[in-house]
Amino acid sequence: RNGIGLRPLGSSAAEFEQDLLSNLYYRRGTTVESASAQDAYESLVLTVRDRLAERRARTTAAHYAANPRWVYYLSAEYLLGRQLEQNILYSGTGEIATAAMKALGVSPEEMDELDIEPGLGNGGLGRLAACLVDAMATLDIPAIGYGIRYDFGIFKQTFVDGAQVEKPDDWTFQGNPWEFPAPDDRQTVFFYGHTTRDEAGRTKWIPGEIVLGEPSHMLVPGYGTETVNIVRLWRARGSESSFDLERFSAGQYAEAVQEAVRAENISKVLYPDDSTELGRELRLKQQYFLVSCSLRDILRRFRLWGGPLTDFPAKSVIQLNDTHPSLAIPELMRLLVDEEGLGWDEAWLLTQRTFAYTCHTLLPEALETWPVALFERLLPRHLEIIYEINQRLLDEVRSRYPGDIDRVRRMSLIQEAPERRVRMAHLAVAGTSAVNGVAELHSQLLAETTLHDFATMWPGKFRNVTNGVSPRRFLRIANPALSELITSALGDSRWAGDLDRLRGLERFADDPAFLRSWRDIKRANKARLGLGDPDALMDVMVKRFHEYKRQQLKLLHVITQYHRIKDNPGGDHVPRTVLFAGKAAPAYHAAKSIIRLINAVAATIEADPAVTPYLKVVFPPNYNVTLGELIIPAADLSEQISLAGKEASGTGNMKLALNGALTIGTLDGANIEIRERVGAENFFLFGLDTPAATELKASGYHPRSYYERDPELRAALDAIMSGAFGGVGKEVAESLLNWDEYLTLADFRAYAECQEAVDRAWQDQTAWTKASLLNTARAGYFSADRTVSDYASTIWHVEPVRVTRD
Ligand SMILES: CCc1ccc([C@H](C)CC(=O)N[C@@H]2O[C@H](CO)[C@@H](O)[C@H](O)[C@H]2O)cc1
Questions:
Q1: Does 284 contact ligand 1 (Cβ within 6 A)?
Q2: ipTM of this predicted complex?
Q3: Ligand 1: which of 360, 441, 544 to mutate, most ligand atoms within 8 Å of CB?
Q4: Is the CB of 368 under 6 A from ligand 1?
Q5: CATH no. for residue 248?
Q6: Tens-digit pLDDT profile for residues 471-525
């Protein structure tokens, strides 16, 4: 019997197989003979899940005994990726699971195919949340990730005539065996209505609509440790009384269920925009739903230990993943003042000490602001609280900067014109004790521009925590061949839990045999991807589509390469496969035009036998975590070409460098830190830096002048405008010639020259492979474990709690 009074689940192959069979018989109600692949998959999941659940039980016991300070990560998005392979690795059941699958007559690949990826996020922010909760568990930090269990995740991307067409992502169509529904922990959430004051002057919120939040959680095991944390996801349900039986028996079937449908709509679908706020009412309802359920659950958990409310910040730190959950600040104030009866000042101190805010963007259009009128209707009490917070903030501003009314107007939580809107970033800064950017340049620019007034008034609040990625998912699992080579070179696999150990690979940088193996594995990963000649340079640009990320710059260069090959068919052109992948927000038409043009250029090149030996453009649809795990290990060149000052950090850049891709990039986001750590000689740098870009824009930027003085650029744009690529893309060329907000044309020549340097470097495969190895060897800093230990020591001030095996 182990520490939790349970007979430990066996770790032998026979015991695992026994458990698998009993799950097949008793939990799937079928037999080996009549089992479907889905039956086998679900039984396998339950067998692995049980072993993690046992560790979860011991984790809970250890956490309860330790009564630690908890980290609560509030995020509207989690891109968790497939769970099976990860949970098999983290539960150490690799061999016995494979043997048991064989006994059942199914293959690991077949099981992985049935393992659905929960697409509960858009891109960088959502995947970062997943990497960070993985690292928190690995570092034995007691933590819970709170989010929304959307019925429909990020849309599935298909191409029709090269154009993106979105399909709904009904990810739980087959159910989700990895989750534990916990309806008994449901919470009640209010919307609309009005507020009243009772005789004691206490405010009461009389809601107009009541919705239930039902949680289900997924296990988040740590790597190389016993800790198993959870991600708790909320789903909206109608209250008991939401089904109107009278109307139903009167035959008004739709009306009878409309209240329940309205409620369930709140967690129906993820908003697919990743950098432009659309100000939809349902999105604000989603955000409040998340924070109200989560804060009530956090307070319920706090009460389990029964300390005074003044202890709350000492026992809970809540990290806000961007402004999307920033309503948690006025919500905690409402709970402390209206429900717990605390005074405002005391409640405000507790609130500020509890919250911390991470900003993930610099784009003005991505900074959320909500109409005051909508707040008035949907969250009347919160608007009152926000006004009070604002009153006190502006009093402090006035006292610190007497007479500086412009500063008061700039810093106010309320934008007054053209429409009265609540500035969520200002609320997030005012209501937290720590504000961080996600890369050094980003944090610097936040303090110098977007949040300058606040950084001036509260310099101590502002810091940087550079992003990181999970080395388990994006190297150990995604690139097993390279992982094996690294483990054999370093003597053990401790690097997966301590990534700085990769530096040990430097001693093989001049070892021809090792470099040969390194190169062969990259080639094999390209063959595994199967999207082009494995001997060609695999040039990869994978990320969401946005004009600031400049997929259009990459495309102009592809067209230039195409022209160069056409103009000089016999020339010694370096064969390249250019891979684009990524989704565009459905309403983002400029991005969708670029996607369509890329597919048209790809088709034109594919149809030209004079060019295909040297150039191939591929665009696999529906880029997600799983496809990323296949593409990233196969990349030779990593495209990180955003306009300097626009990409907050990037995390794809880290995953690609970790897998031995060389980066061609600008001095933007974490590219700067990657270049500093892997060595400038192992990085292809080009383009305007942030000050130069700002200067060029300020001094009047005329994109057409670059077109006129650069013949290759002119030829590329003329080709598009002449309809050379299936007649599509004219709007892309016109917007570049007339507007070009992200200085694409200004950086074109430098980029083209840098790509020539890439071609020259590729010619020396030994030198290239050495640089590739050094990128991996020096990427240790970009582990999410380092990121989390930075958060833990500089913002959360939490200690790990060890979980024993028995
Ligand atoms: C309101 C709509 C909306 C939705 C999502 C977002 C996210 C903040 C966008 C996002 O994913 N940002 C990315 O976050 C990554 C993790 O920190 C960074 O690495 C990327 O540079 C940043 O673009 C902004 C606005």
A1: no
A2: 0.99
A3: 360
A4: yes
A5: 3.40.50.2000
A6: 999 999 999 999 999 999 999 999 999 999 999 999 999 999 999 999 999 999 9
